[in-house]
Amino acid sequence: MRWFIGLLLLLLLALQYRLWTGDGSLAEVQALRDEINAQKVELQQLRARNQVLEAEVLDLHEGLDALEERARSELGMIKRGELFLQVIEEPAKDASQKSASSAAGEGP
């Protein structure tokens, strides 16, 4: 009878070892669940991005306003008869040096 109880305990330990460390263990299952959740989040982000791109494509196919706006912003195009003005700003670094030199009494 003792050897039977010992055999049952040994079998229980073997099954517990497999549950915690073998294929399909609890740690592996949790890691797979975490990976699935991460992929679901990424999928939602990609679906939202696809919706934005699809709306943009439809807008470009249907309306000339979006096409004109894109030509102006990305390609720098203008209509006939329009005047193009380009404003070039000084870097902030140069402006701070000029203000420091004028405060010290130096000329421009």
Summarize the helices and strands and which ones pair or pack.
Elements: H1 2-21, H2 26-62, H3 64-75, H4 92-103
Helix pairs in contact: 2-3
Structure characterization notes:
The chain is mainly alpha-helical and 108 residues long. The chain has 4 helices and no strands. The protein has helices at 2-21, 26-62, 64-75, 92-103. The longest helix is centred in the middle third of the chain and has 37 residues, at 26-62. The chain is elongated, with a radius of gyration of 35 Å. The N and C termini lie far apart (105 Å).
Short description:
The chain has 108 residues and is mostly helical.
Structural class: mainly alpha
- Biggest sheet overview: none
The Cα radius of gyration reads: 35 Å
> How far is it from the N-terminal to the C-terminal residue, by CA?
105 Å
What shape does the CA trace take? elongated
Number of helices, counting only DSSP H or I runs of 4 residues or more = 4
- The overall pLDDT average reads 81
The beta-strand count equals 0
List the secondary-structure elements in sequence, H or E.
HHHH
